[in-house]
Each structure stands twice: as structure tokens, then as C-alpha cells.
TrEMBL record:
Location, primary (coarse class): other
Protein's name in the database: Claudin
Organism of derivation: Eurypyga helias
Subcellular location: Cell junction, Tight junction; Cell membrane
Keyword Transmembrane helix among UniProt keywords: yes
TM region(s), chain numbering: 34-54, 74-96, 116-139
Any GO molecular function: structural molecule activity
Keyword Membrane: yes
Length: 166
């Protein structure tokens, strides 16, 4: 038996897998509905973050006249990626917690105990990569001017005209 956010599947002894989409959204548990909503939000935020971050890349011609705004767009895209990764991390961890609690529940029948599937591990890896990528984009933040006085170099010597010495 396999159970996910969008459908449940059963594998027969012959190797054939039969999947069934959940009948009604209203029949689902509240935690499953919230997990679905978080995953959809994470996907949509990831797409928005991708478009915003691409706008802020140095190789794009968009907004090339103002480099500070361009860098701020990249940082803003990084923040959106971090929020997207956190939403995906919360959703996958919440669903993993649900699976673990049901597995250790003594009232759950033995033949309906689920274990962690590959989708959970992929979700955790994707969330980690989105957070890491967003953090890298946030590191491209423009540096602020410091309050230190500017360093003074040595004055440049004017070219000699030959009349400076006696």
C-alpha cells in the first residue's frame, strides 16, 4: 500500500499497481489538506522566486542601468526561495510525522502501516536545496557604505616641465 498527498495506490502480488485519486477534498483530514496547500504554495512560490531571481541576474538585460536594484531583485528572489523551501520542508516533515505516528500507533492494523517513501526524501532534499539556493542568492546583497572615512592615497606628482629646479 502507498499513500500520498494526491492518491493512494495498492500493489498486487502480480506486480500490478492500482492507484485511486482521492474522491473528495472535503473527506480528507485537515492535516492532509493543509499539507497539500503548503506544497502547492511552495511550488508556486518557487516559480515566482525563479522569475524574480532571473530578473536580478547580472547576465540579463532587464534593469541593467541600475545595478543596485538588480542586486536587490536577486536578493528578493533568494528570500522567496527560502520561504518556498521552508513551506516545502514544513509540508514534508508534517506528512512524515503523520506517517511515523500512524506506524507506531498500536491501534493501526499491521497491514495498513505505511513507511517513508521516496517522495518524502525527495521533498526534504528539494526543500534543503531551495533554502540553500535562496541563501546563496541572499549573499549577493550589495554592500552598504561604511561610516569610516575614505582612505587617502598619496598625491599624484604633476609632470615636470623642467623649470622646477634652480
Amino acid at each position: 500500500l502507498y499513500e500520498g498527498l494526491w492518491m493512494s495506490c495498492a500493489m498486487q502480488s502480480t506486480g500490478q499497481i492500482q492507484c485511486k485519486v482521492y474522491d473528495s477534498l472535503l473527506k480528507l483530514e485537515g492535516s492532509l489538506q493543509a499539507t497539500r496547500a503548503l506544497m502547492v504554495a511552495a511550488i508556486l512560490l518557487g516559480l515566482v522566486g525563479l522569475f524574480v531571481a532571473v530578473t536580478g541576474m547580472k547576465c540579463m538585460k532587464c534593469m541593467e542601468d541600475d545595478q543596485v536594484k538588480k542586486m536587490r531583485m536577486a536578493v528578493f528572489g533568494g528570500v522567496i526561495f527560502i520561504v518556498s523551501g521552508l513551506a516545502a520542508l514544513v509540508a514534508t516533515s508534517w506528512y512524515g510525522n503523520r506517517v511515523a505516528r500512524a506506524f507506531y500507533d498500536p491501534f493501526t492494523p499491521v497491514n495498513t502501516r505505511f513507511e517513508f517513501g521516496s517522495a518524502l526524501f525527495i521533498g526534504w532534499a528539494a526543500a534543503s536545496l531551495a533554502i540553500l539556493g535562496g541563501a546563496f542568492l541572499c549573499c549577493s546583497c550589495p554592500r552598504r557604505e561604511t561610516s569610516y572615512p575614505p582612505t587617502r592615497g598619496y598625491p599624484k606628482n604633476a609632470p615636470s616641465t623642467g623649470k622646477d629646479y634652480v
